[in-house]
Design a protein that fits this description.
Layout (H helix, E strand, L loop, with lengths): L9 E4 L8 H14 L3 E6 L1 H10 L6 E4 L2 E2 L7 E5 L2 E5 L4 E6 L5 H16 L7 E7 L2 E7 L4 E2 H7 L4 H16 L11 H11 L6 H12 L7 E2 L8 E4 L2 E4 L6 E2 L2 H18 L4 H5 L3 H37 L10 H14 L9 H5 L4
Parallel strand pairs: 1-2, 2-3, 4-8
Antiparallel strand pairs: 5-6, 6-7, 7-9, 8-9, 10-12, 11-14, 12-13
Helix pairs in contact: 5-10, 6-7, 8-10
Length: 361
C-alpha cells in the first residue's frame, strides 16, 4: 500500500502473517491516526489475533480472525429453516450453515445474540466461532449428545403431552427473563413498523385492524425467542436447550406465542402434510404438543382465552410475511393475503376484543 487517503477505510489482509512486533503495531496505530477512519485487519491467525487482544489493539482497530474451512455431510442434517441448515459436526458440536449470500455480519449478529441470551441465563447452546462452509458462513455451537425435541417426540409419541408441558415451562422461563436491551431488539416496535408497511397490500379498514392488534399490547422488557417450536429446541441430557437464536429480542409474550402458532397449527389447518417439513412431526402429534404447551403456559383458567390470542397473533404475524420471508415476491404476497382473508382474519366479523381486554399475561 503506497498511500492512504484521509477519511477512507483501510482493509489489511493478514493471511500468512505469523507474528507482529510492537514496531508493526505502532505502524498500524500511526496509520489509524493519519487517516482518521477504520483500519480493518482480516484473516489474522490465532497467534496474531492474541497479540492484538493482549495489547489492546483490538479495541483500536477492527481485527477479524481467519475463518476455519469446514465441510458438512448432508446425512448429518438435524434441522432446517428459511435461512439455512443445522448439521452435526461431531459428538460435541453442531454448525448452523446459512444460505449462500447471507453476509458475515448477519451470521455474527446471530452468534452474538445467542451469547447475550446465554449470559442472561437462557438455556441455549454455547456459541463458538464462525467458519466458512463452501460459499457460505456457519456458526459453530456446542451440543453434546443432543437431538431436536421433534426427533425425541417422534421416537416415542407417547411423550408428546409430557414434552409439550415442558415446552410451556421453558417458554414461561424465557418470558420471565429480563433482556439486555442494549444488545437486543424491541420486537413490538418491529412488528408495528411491519404492520404499517402492509398498506401496500391491505384496505384502510384491514390495515387499521391489523395495526390495532399490535397497539393493544403493552411494552415489555422480557426476552422473546422469535421462532419457538420443537424443531428449534434441543434435548440434551434431559434438558431443553434453545437453538436458532437469530430472531431473539424482547417484548410482549404474545408475539412469541403467535409465532409458535404458525408452524405448529396454522400450516396444519391448510396443508397438514407440510407440518412435518417445518417442525419435524405430523400434525396430530403437533396438536397434542401444542395443546399441552398452552395448558402449561396459560393454566386451565385462561386456556381458552390463550388459544384465541395465540391464533390472533399467529394470523397477524402471517400477515407480516411480506416483510419477514426473504424470498417474498408481490405475487406470493397477494396470494398470502387472499388466503388470510379467506380464513376470516381482518374481516368485519373478526373480533379483537380478547386482545383489547386481556390482562392476564
Amino acid at each position: 500500500m503506497s498511500s492512504c487517503t484521509p477519511g477512507e477505510d483501510v482493509c489489511l489482509n493478514a493471511d500468512g502473517l505469523e507474528y507482529i512486533s510492537s514496531a508493526g503495531l505502532r505502524v498500524l496505530l500511526k496509520l489509524k491516526k493519519s487517516i482518521q477512519a477504520e483500519v480493518r485487519v482480516i484473516n489474522a491467525s490465532n497467534d496474531v489475533y492474541d497479540i492484538f487482544e493482549v495489547t489492546g489493539f483490538s479495541e483500536i482497530l477492527t481485527v477479524e480472525k481467519k475463518l476455519r474451512e469446514l465441510t458438512v455431510d448432508e446425512n448429518n442434517v438435524i434441522g432446517e429453516g428459511a435461512n439455512g441448515k443445522v448439521y452435526r459436526l461431531d459428538d460435541e458440536t453442531i454448525i448452523k450453515v446459512f444460505a449462500p449470500g447471507v453476509p458475515m455480519n448477519v451470521v455474527k449478529e446471530e452468534r452474538d445474540i445467542a451469547r447475550a441470551a446465554f449470559v442472561s441465563g437462557v438455556p441455549t447452546a454455547i456459541s463458538y466461532d464462525i467458519a466458512r462452509v463452501g460459499e457460505s458462513y456457519g456458526a459453530v455451537y456446542e451440543m453434546l449428545n443432543a437431538k431436536t425435541l421433534s426427533a425425541v417426540i417422534n421416537e416415542n409419541k407417547d411423550r408428546a403431552v409430557e414434552m409439550g408441558c415442558r415446552l410451556g415451562k421453558l417458554l414461561k422461563e424465557l418470558h420471565r427473563t429480563l433482556a439486555n436491551k442494549e444488545k437486543l431488539t424491541d420486537m413490538l416496535e418491529v412488528y408495528k413498523d411491519r404492520a404499517h408497511k402492509m398498506e401496500k397490500y391491505l384496505s384502510d379498514t384491514e390495515l387499521d385492524k391489523l395495526i390495532s392488534v399490535y397497539n393493544a399490547l403493552d411494552s415489555r422488557s422480557t426476552m422473546l425467542h422469535g421462532d419457538f417450536h420443537p424443531k428449534n429446541v434441543m434435548y440434551m441430557d434431559d434438558e431443553l436447550i434453545f437453538i436458532d437464536m437469530g430472531d431473539v429480542g424482547y417484548g410482549h409474550p404474545l408475539l412469541d406465542i403467535g409465532g409458535s402458532y404458525l408452524p405448529m397449527m396454522h400450516i396444519g389447518k391448510f396443508k397438514p402434510d407440510l407440518v412435518f417439513k417445518y417442525i419435524g412431526m405430523d400434525f396430530d402429534t403437533a396438536t397434542r404438543v401444542w395443546d399441552s404447551m398452552l395448558l402449561e403456559y396459560f393454566g386451565e383458567e385462561h386456556l381458552e382465552e390463550g388459544k384465541i390470542l395465540a391464533e390472533i397473533y399467529g394470523e397477524a404475524k402471517y400477515m407480516l410475511m411480506p416483510f419477514i420471508y426473504t424470498k417474498m415476491t408481490d405475487e406470493i404476497a397477494v396470494n398470502l393475503i387472499a388466503r388470510t382473508r379467506q380464513n376470516g382474519f381482518l374481516s368485519d366479523s373478526f373480533d379483537i376484543t380478547p386482545v383489547l381486554t386481556s390482562n392476564f399475561l
